[in-house]
Specification:
Layout: H1 2-17, H2 56-74, E1 89-93, E2 109-115, H3 124-133, E3 143-148, H4 154-173, H5 181-218
Antiparallel strand pairs: 1-2, 2-3
Helix pairs in contact: 1-5, 2-5, 3-4
Length: 219
């Protein structure tokens, strides 16, 4: 039961801490709620210490919630930067894609290279996010390489590659809105219940070991 609650809590927290390419914001700042964090404490941990003890797991949940609120509050609400041909290097090769008699004869395949680290027009947060999201497609020179053979023309493939790069920038620019007060309470409740289950299981195991030691002393 505790593992299920922990997995559910983790899934809810990821929604507020990790951007998604399939869910882009309309106005993240419009969803900003009060920045007052909710303190998550476990009733089961209050015995003998005045209720001041908070487990490392609950502290981590509190920290993640605070970070989500800080990211949303620091977001300026500006639209994602737009990439143009001036920001990339384009090369062409023979395409094996659609084209009929032109296949393997005309240089319609587009290889577009975007140097993320040298992109002065992007903020450090966006650049770091791109480097993290697309680390498997960035070469040793720090270039994000995008290829396109979608159309029969160079122009069409250039536009397609630019759209792919823009989608990556849009995803990296997205700042998830902070959880609402209702969502924070739900996360807090689930985290506290999971912690109670963990402490209860730990106590049962401790009592079992203590009983075994006592029984061994009878011999």
């Amino acid at each position: 039961m505790a593992l299920v609650l922990r997995a559910t809590t983790n899934m809810m927290l990821r929604h507020f801490t990790q951007p998604s390419m399939s869910f882009l914001p309309s106005s993240p700042t419009a969803l900003l709620r009060s920045t007052a964090g909710i303190s998550i404490r476990c009733a089961a941990s209050s015995s003998g210490d005045g209720g001041n003890k908070v487990s490392a797991r609950l502290s981590q949940v509190n920290q993640l919630l605070r970070e989500a609120e800080e990211r949303a509050s620091s977001n300026d609400g500006l639209p994602a930067p737009k990439i143009t041909l001036d920001h990339v290097t384009v090369s062409f090769a023979r395409s094996g894609g659609p084209g009929g008699q032109n296949v393997n004869k005309l240089n319609t395949k587009v290889d577009m290279r975007f140097n993320v680290k040298n992109a002065y027009w992007l903020s450090d947060r966006i650049k770091e996010r791109i480097l993290q999201m697309e680390k498997n497609r960035i070469n040793k020179d720090g270039e994000l390489v995008i290829s396109s053979t979608r159309t029969r023309t160079q122009k069409g493939n250039i536009e397609d590659a630019l759209e792919k790069l823009q989608a990556i920038i849009d995803a990296a620019s997205y700042v998830p809105p902070p959880p609402s007060e209702e969502q924070k309470k739900k996360i807090a409740k689930m985290a506290a219940i999971g912690e109670q289950k963990r402490l209860k299981s730990k106590k049962v195991l401790s009592d079992k070991k203590a009983f075994r030691r006592t029984r061994d002393s009878w011999d």
